[in-house]
Amino acid sequence: MAVVGDLALMGTKIKLIGKFEKRVFGVPLSSSTRFSFSHVKNLDVRKSRTAVRAVMQVEKIQSSGELKEGSLGFDVVSERELKENGFLGLRKTKLVCTIGPACSSIDELEKLAIAGMNVARLNMCHNSREWHQDVIRKIKKLNQEKGYCVSVMIDTEGNQIQVDHGSSSSVKAEEDSIWYFTTEKFEGSRPFTIQANYEGFSEGVNSGDEIVIDGGMATFEIIEKVGNGLRCKCTDPGLLLPRAKLSFWRDGKLLGRDYDLPTLSTKDWSDIVFGISEDIDFIAVSFVKDAEPITHLRDYLSITSSKAIKVLAKIESLESLRRLEEIVEASDGIMIARGDLGVEIPLEQIPSVQKDITYVCRQLNKPVIVASQLLESMVEYPTPTRAEVADVSEAVQQYADALMLSGESAIGSYGMKALSVLRTTSTRMEQSCREENRQTLLHQRKLGASLPDQIAEQICNCAVEMADNLGVDAIFVYTRHGKMASLLSRNRPNPPIFAFTNDNSTQMALNLQWGVTPLLTDLSDDMEGNVKKTVELIKAKGMIKKDDAILVVSDIILISTARTIFQSIQVMTIT
């Protein structure tokens, strides 16, 4: 027996199944090689219910053909892509589409699903409750009846100062035109009048200060205060959209305003209750300033929701940047809302801030969405600018989990083309990064507090290193709640990750994780049986072929052995 290395972990079984002309930890492997780990370093088995077992063995897996095809939860899009492109041709960056009037019919929703939409986002700032309900139920119907796997996200409106000109469409503000900003409530529209939704919006501002609309769509100079209102002159002409956002600037610097508004408004809570009743998968919280509202909402969901709805925090203000790490730790994921963020920090800082947020999210193992203005020109034009394509490519190179379309899909005339640009650009850039080995080493933070969590984390780190070094075709992970699938994703392996779970909430949550294809299937506490069954089913569908190499990881809890955690790494070749 040869000692390979000090890799023995509590409750871990490591098996290499297959024939490899490779070396693992400096030791050559062949089909006749058998290894075992016998040195366990200062681990007290009495402190854990996990068993100490770390055996590496080499053999081949045979398919008995006993199981029937059809009981494996492959969604139709992933199945088609895998058959057409093979394992390494699968796109790893996830795609989020905002649903609006331009794409709310069931036919348009299905087109988006076919084209690669992983998550459908509903902006609760717009449209009626009935409209949102109709869209959610159409997506659920497509998933259930046609085999798609599209998760649903609602995005709260948040407490924010908004202005509205009263028209349902945009209004042009011409240079040197005089406008009146007021808190007076009135129906319809008035010429050159803009209504603010907060009584104290003009407090603390002076003549000569500037009002910037929607991050630069139009700019006004304050001429004078008139009661609670402001008389202003347009200095930079542009379009005023309904329900626009505004910021105040003085001497070229953002004028910090603390309106002391709660993060979640009464309307937001009503929308959240609605989302729970409609069985949504994600809630994105707008204008998060600190971790408290995220923690409060997660506690509320744990009591009121029967499923594990994930809570995402939107980073779109200076306050959220100052408390970034605590917000990331408290949330289930992050959305970088670059449009609103660009109102509060200098534009030239946006690229570096995006990179920093993405890196922090990877360190803390939280999915991150890059959002806002990725392909803004495609709201009106059928092709993007070259700069927009470069922007998308940069987000992919930073290993963001997901990219998001906003107005491009919601109100644009070329939503399908925009989604196609995201899909093809991300796929091409992923391939380029893989070929040029651009993967940068992540400074690994130890996340686990308990010993079993630390073990799972180390197993996943080692598993990805093995998968990349051995050049396996895919990673299979068997998981109840998605923890090990997300830990594998955190390391951004070259091969795709297939996460087998028997929990629908886990499947839909993993739709946002980089490189993970979630599959809903029955799982037992017989791990060998789980592996054998799923390999046979995938092989029967023609999606796996002879001599493919698969690395297998598991965190299944064995009911028959006093809830021992069965954590293992196996590598197998298909015969």
From TrEMBL:
Residues covered by the Pyruvate kinase barrel domain: 91-418
E.C. designation(s): 2.7.1.40
Catalysed conversion reaction: pyruvate + ATP = phosphoenolpyruvate + ADP + H(+)
PROSITE patterns named in the record: PYRUVATE_KINASE (PS00110)
Pfam assignment, any one: PK_C
Family: Belongs to the pyruvate kinase family.
Protein name per its UniProtKB record: Pyruvate kinase
Biological source species: Solanum pennellii
Lineage: Eukaryota, Viridiplantae, Streptophyta, Embryophyta, Tracheophyta
